[in-house]
Amino acid sequence: MTLRRFSLIAAAVCAFLVVVVTLVLSGALERSTAIAVDKFTQLAGAGAAMVCYWRAGLRRQGTARRWRLWMAASMASLVVGLGAWTWGQVFLGVPLPSTTVAPLGFILVPVLALFAVLVLGHGGAGSLPNHRSRVVIVLDGLIVVGSLFVLTWVSLLESMVRAWATSGPGFATVVAHPAAYLVMLVVLLVSSWSHRSVRQLPMLFVALAGLGQSASGWVFAFLVSKGVTDIPVAADIGFMVCPALYFLSSIAPSSAGRERVAAGKLRAGEMLHILVPYLPMLITGLFIVVGTATGVRLNPFEIYVGLAVVLLVIARQLFTLIDNVRLLEQLRDSRERLRHQAYHDPLTGVANRVLFRERLDAALENPDPLVVLFIDVDGFKDVNDNYGHAEGDAVLRIVAQRLQHCVRAQDTVARLGGDEFGILVDGYPSPPEEIGRRVLDAMSSPHRTAGGVHHIRASIGISHRDAPDPALTADDLLGSADAAMYTAKRLGKGMVVVHGSVEAELS
């Protein structure tokens, strides 16, 4: 649905609500008729929202489908609750039909909507890709609600519950129903700071509906605590508007992932996300400390709820610690991958020229003898020209593997560029010529790839340092090995040339 069309529908819904509310409050209708109009308006809005959520969910896939189906289930629960309540008030004449299934239907509405929020936040753009994120969001919501619950219980709520909610259905209707909406609202707010997918128009209307339901529920509870058994129709206006908001949410166009959040605002949101679970707890703690210092005694229920909030904070910190450890491991792995990419050849996996040069510089600082081999693959151009670059890459990978098998694990094999390789042998146990012969023997075997069998050789130049020489540099050794390699090529290829002498191998 386009935003323009949605705006027209929203305007029509608002106009209809204004007419109905005005008609109910004007006194033009008898009380029984006003109650019937009120309840059937709520039922119509909830039913329309349920159908629209269901149809929209069936037309989509993935996360967009799942959260809408959860909301359809939430609206179905609201229809059941409203239907039972309407039957009791309109047809049976029961002022407060708490003994019906209405309380169960009402309390399941925010619970099922909470699942929709969690599904949307977990699977949408900008969400954390693990189940722990949803647990942390729920813990944050419970910490906030638990802290506020202790605060309101100590100051006001206990007297309200004692006034009427002595039975299970009564408690669900008066206390648990608006409290559950409060949990859903806090979780929606917390998840919207860390998940862009939650910051969209449908969730805004869900939040407004939940806010209206929770506020109206507390007004209802307050009236009941004052002994009212016949709720005024005017006090029911909030409940009348909420189903219409759910309906608008079900048809509102989604905009998740389209907006760009400024970096400063994002950082502020993240900081607020960190602090929100603890600010209500701090305020509640200060309130209780001041109260107990002035003679207020806490009953066991208040103590147990307070301990539960503390345990929730501990659990939240444990999850945060686990996430931090995981993030540190990912950061370390990322650094290792970046370091490997910076110092290794992406095609063959051996060291690149930068790492080869660093290790050669380090080896020159030690007194141990060292050998540098400069290797050029003979006939590699023919492979590229006749078989393609993919075959050439396969040959280079085989060459790198064979060179690694010719030396020790602590020695360095590097691809210096193109079809040129280098080997650094630090503290070599055998004469330089023997190392070169091993390389020639390894290169003489046919190179078998997916595209065929290739017979290639190598020209090898060797330079070495037998004793410490402060005047000798890495450029000197590399230059000498390079010059010896070109000498080997001029002498017929497939040879080893040690700087200052010539050794021919392989015919």
From TrEMBL:
Gene3D superfamilies: 3.30.70.270. It comes from the Bacteria. Pfam families: GGDEF (PF00990). PROSITE patterns: GGDEF (PS50887). SUPFAM superfamilies: Nucleotide cyclase. Keywords: Membrane, Transmembrane, Transmembrane helix. CDD domains: GGDEF (cd01949). InterPro entries: DGC-Regulatory_Protein, GGDEF_dom, Nucleotide_cyclase, Rev_trsase/Diguanyl_cyclase. Residues 368-501 form the GGDEF domain. The chain crosses the membrane at residues 40-57, 69-88, 100-123, 135-156, 168-191, 203-225, 231-251, 272-291, 303-322. PANTHER family: DIGUANYLATE CYCLASE DGCT-RELATED, GGDEF DOMAIN-CONTAINING PROTEIN. This is Putative diguanylate cyclase.
